């Protein structure tokens, strides 16, 4: 796992307790965040046993999917999707393609994952069973090898990540890339005979896959499945003045004009796709320049490289269209993707500055006043500022109901900033950082009450108990009202001794059916990034 993943930084911070950095006996193997075991395959074909629920139920799940997931990763024209859904139920005896069935089962698995609908229609299976149905169709989806196959694999990967199966999500995302490349999406050679509209759909699908692949591979610290050389044109979102003039001068070219416009729909604002893709490319460059190259080549990180990526990131912010500013008025469905765009921007700043923050943490304890510490302070301050801004965005999302419990994106952002605030609190013991920790935990509680976060929030709680931020002997627990109701059986670290469980075995005791160990390099990995630390 690469150092660019948030897990090595999180693990390094977790090792810093009581003003001391505790190095594990085996430093190359440290506890990772929670992963869960895959469901046991059914002996009988789940696909034959579980039919799709009522049209009302699927429609309700689709609405949640479009609002929370599709608004970030565009896969379907909403009009085309709902028309196809109506046709599916209007002609029940018509044989559905494996890709379409897999997509519907994946959407049901995503939208119903741990967050039931109040007074909604009844579902004929659990989210986990819908996930198994989607998974059982993988071979048939690959055999079809169509654009719908790519969409189905992206949706299945999203569902896997939503249920906590990150490794499986990474595998299926890579499979989606292979299917897309086999059809020429990576070089814009997708079936020209289908026409311009279908080609625009193919471009949007490719770039949605690119965004998902980059986000997932960055989160896991693993190589992206898409090569840097794959760079087809972005889909056109509006006609230029030249196209308008050409249309009005030549009315027979109506079709040509229409093909220049393929609206992103009611869930994604104009220019969102291009802006997010640019951020993904910037993040990819940061991974290469700051993490991979210096570490692999045994070189010191040069400050001009850091300044270069920071300048490129600032240029993106300076050229962002005004309607995509977080404070700008926006349509209700546009607010979530705009918020996600700014969370992505600040998360890249964290990606750049986190190693400096960790180095600053070590220097302030071991070599206060050193010249190297002064060089790291600037980027540490940027890291803290970005974390505070991300916290403000997440709080707004929670207050306005814009957050999602169905996908891991929001939870991971909140987890990232919590670790940053903990690292600063380790040195300053300031009330400001403690308050930021409280607020971050409240956000995590809101997002992690269902879905992917529900499987990980107990480990976060355990970390805070290790740090002494949550305990019966402090007043901090009282200020985090409601957190103790999530964990009624565990109120302090001493409870583990009452149960006869050692602190070292506590994570395994809390999650007996969950694999909590991963081959990672934590504190040592963060040190390697900043050899010297910079020139």
Automatic annotation (TrEMBL):
InterPro entries: Fungal_SecMet_Regulators, XnlR_reg_dom. Keywords: DNA-binding, Nucleus, Transcription, Transcription regulation. Pfam families: Fungal_trans (PF04082). CDD domains: fungal_TF_MHR (cd12148). One of its GO terms (molecular function) is zinc ion binding. The keyword Transcription regulation applies. GO terms for cellular component: nucleus. It comes from the Eukaryota. Residues 169-241 form the Xylanolytic transcriptional activator regulatory domain. GO terms for biological process: DNA-templated transcription; positive regulation of transcription from RNA polymerase II promoter by galactose. This is Xylanolytic transcriptional activator regulatory domain-containing protein.
């Amino acid at each position: 796992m690469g150092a660019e993943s948030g897990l090595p930084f999180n693990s390094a911070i977790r090792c810093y307790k009581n003003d001391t950095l505790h190095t594990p006996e085996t430093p190359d193997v440290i506890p990772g965040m929670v992963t869960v075991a895959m469901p046991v395959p059914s002996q009988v074909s789940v696909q034959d046993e579980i039919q799709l629920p009522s049209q009302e139920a699927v429609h309700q799940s689709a609405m949640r999917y479009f609002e929370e997931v599709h608004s970030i990763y565009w896969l379907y024209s909403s009009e085309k999707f709902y028309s196809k859904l109506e046709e599916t139920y209007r002609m029940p005896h018509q044989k559905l393609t494996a890709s379409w069935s897999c997509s519907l089962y994946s959407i049901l698995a995503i939208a119903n994952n741990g967050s039931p609908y109040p007074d909604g229609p009844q579902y004929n299976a659990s989210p986990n069973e819908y996930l198994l149905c989607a998974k059982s169709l993988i071979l048939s989806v690959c055999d079809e090898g169509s654009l719908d196959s790519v969409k189905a694999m992206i949706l299945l990967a999203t569902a896997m990540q939503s249920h906590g199966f990150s490794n499986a999500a990474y595998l299926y995302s890579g499979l989606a890339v292979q299917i897309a490349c086999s059809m020429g999406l990576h070089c814009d050679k997708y079936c020209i005979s289908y026409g311009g509209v279908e080609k625009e759909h193919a471009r949007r699908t490719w770039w949605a896959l690119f965004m998902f692949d980059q986000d997932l591979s960055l989160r896991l610290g693993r190589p992206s499945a898409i090569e840097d050389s794959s760079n087809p044109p972005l889909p056109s979102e509006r006609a230029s003045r030249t196209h308008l003039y050409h249309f009005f001068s030549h009315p027979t070219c109506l079709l040509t004009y229409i093909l220049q416009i393929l609206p992103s729909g009611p869930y994604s604002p104009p220019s969102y796709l291009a802006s997010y893709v640019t951020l993904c490319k910037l993040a990819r460059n940061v991974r290469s320049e700051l993490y991979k190259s210096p570490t692999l080549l045994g070189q010191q990180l040069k400050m001009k490289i850091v300044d270069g990526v920071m300048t490129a990131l600032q240029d993106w912010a300076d050229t962002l269209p005004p309607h995509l500013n977080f404070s700008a008025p926006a349509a209700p469905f546009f607010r979530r993707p705009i918020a996600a765009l700014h969370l992505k921007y600040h998360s890249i700043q964290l990606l750049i500055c986190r190693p400096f923050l960790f180095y600053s943490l070590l220097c302030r304890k071991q070599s206060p006043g050193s010249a190297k510490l002064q060089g790291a302070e600037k980027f540490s301050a940027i890291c803290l500022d970005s974390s505070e801004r991300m916290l403000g965005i997440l709080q707004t999302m929670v207050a306005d109901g814009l957050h999602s419990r169905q996908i891991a994106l929001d939870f991971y952002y909140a987890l990232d900033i919590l670790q940053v605030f903990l690292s600063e609190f380790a040195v300053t013991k300031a009330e400001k950082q403690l308050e930021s920790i409280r607020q971050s935990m409240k956000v995590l509680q809101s997002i992690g009450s269902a879905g992917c976060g529900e499987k990980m929030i107990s480990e976060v709680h355990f970390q805070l108990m290790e740090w002494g931020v949550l305990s019966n002997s402090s007043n901090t627990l009282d200020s985090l009202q409601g957190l103790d109701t999530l964990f009624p059986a565990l109120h302090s670290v001493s409870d583990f001794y009452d149960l006869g469980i050692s602190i070292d075995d506590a994570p395994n005791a809390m999650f007996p059916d969950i694999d909590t160990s991963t081959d990672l390099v934590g504190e040592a990995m963060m040190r390697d990034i900043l050899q010297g630390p910079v020139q």
